[in-house]
Automatic annotation (TrEMBL):
It comes from Candida tenuis (strain ATCC 10573 / BCRC 21748 / CBS 615 / JCM 9827 / NBRC 10315 / NRRL Y-1498 / VKM Y-70) (Yeast). Signal peptide: none annotated. One of its GO terms (biological process) is nuclear-transcribed mRNA catabolic process, deadenylation-dependent decay. This is Eukaryotic peptide chain release factor GTP-binding subunit. SUPFAM superfamilies: P-loop containing nucleoside triphosphate hydrolases (SSF52540), Translation proteins (SSF50447). Keywords: Cytoplasm, GTP-binding, Nucleotide-binding, Phosphoprotein, Protein biosynthesis, Repeat. Residues 1-220 form the Tr-type G domain. The keyword Cell membrane does not apply. GO terms for molecular function: GTP binding; GTPase activity; translation release factor activity. Gene3D superfamilies: P-loop containing nucleotide triphosphate hydrolases (3.40.50.300), Translation factors (2.40.30.10). It comes from the Eukaryota.
Length: 289
């Protein structure tokens, strides 16, 4: 899940990742670039891949948690793009409850990092909320390293990561569970491929996708008891609940127990963001009727 202060570049980074992994074709990106230019928002076109509604595009800020999918040679990923504005913290919490790994995006641009990290900034709050929602592995992506005020400065990078590293360890993240890396979400440097030494001589670490691919897969305990914390509910031809499956699997017509009131329920249907089915081993965010 991408999280962090407003304007850190989360949606742009997510959109560029989808483009670089061929989840979005060039024709679609070119279309967004033309539309953004016509709207006077030329630099925002990559974020429009993730921000799909008119209000998000006109204001330049994410309002709801965006979802998208891409694949590498090793895995299939779901991107969750959380809003960075403090008005939409509840949306961020909902997204964090579904995520396995947190990508904390911070802006290296002069002034923006300080605003996000100071009291009242969402960098601190998002990191803390992610930890309380069970995200125990975090990648801190120092974005906008290509900005003229930064110009891939190692000093600026260390300035941003040192303070944040102390804070993250203070809220419970182990040192080995925190990864730092510099990137440019707009140019794509450090996202799919490693940063060219002609651009940044001092960083020789992995790219973002290399880092994600190196994580051990989460053990879903597919044969364990079915457990799914409920993140949302609605009524439409019966009761529909949404959540992330933590263990086990479920089929239609299964009898379940809804806690804490021990209400007996029956599964009439299962739906995921990808496909529907009468019988399915659910391992992702799902809706159950």
């Amino acid at each position: 899940m991408f999280m962090g202060h407003v304007d850190a570049g989360k949606s742009t980074m997510g959109g560029n990742l989808l483009y670089l992994t061929n989840a979005v074709d060039k024709r679609t990106v070119d279309k967004y670039e033309r539309e953004a230019k016509d709207a006077g928002r030329q630099g925002w076109y990559l974020s429009w891949i993730m921000d799909t509604n008119k209000e998000e595009r006109s204001d330049g800020k994410t309002i709801e948690v965006g979802k998208a999918y891409f694949e590498t040679e090793k895995r299939r990923y779901t991107i969750l793009d959380a809003p960075g504005h403090k008005m939409y913290v509840s949306e961020m919490i909902g997204g964090a409850s579904q995520a396995d790994v947190g990508i904390l995006v911070i802006s290296a641009r002069k002034g923006e990092y300080e605003t996000g990290f100071e009291k009242g900034g969402q960098t601190r709050e998002h990191a803390l909320l992610a930890k309380t929602q069970g995200i125990n592995s975090i990648i801190v992506v120092v974005n906008k390293m290509d900005d003229p005020t930064v110009n891939w400065s190692e000093q600026r990078y260390k300035e941003c990561t040192t303070k944040l590293g102390i804070y993250l360890r203070g809220i419970g993240y182990a040192k080995e569970d925190i990864t730092f890396m510099p990137v440019s979400g707009y140019t794509g440097a450090g996202l799919r491929d490693r940063i060219d030494t002609s651009v940044c001589k001092w960083y020789e670490g992995p790219s973002l996708l290399e880092c994600l691919d190196s994580f051990k897969p989460v053990n879903r305990k597919i044969n364990g008891p079915f457990l799914m914390p409920i993140s949302a509910k609605m009524k439409d031809m019966g009761l529909i609940v949404e959540g992330k499956v933590e263990s086990g699997h479920v089929k239609t017509n299964n009898k379940l127990l809804l806690m804490p009131n021990k209400v007996k329920v029956e599964v009439c249907g299962i739906e995921t963001q990808i496909r529907k089915g009468h019988q399915q081993e659910v391992q992702e965010t799902s809706s159950i009727c």
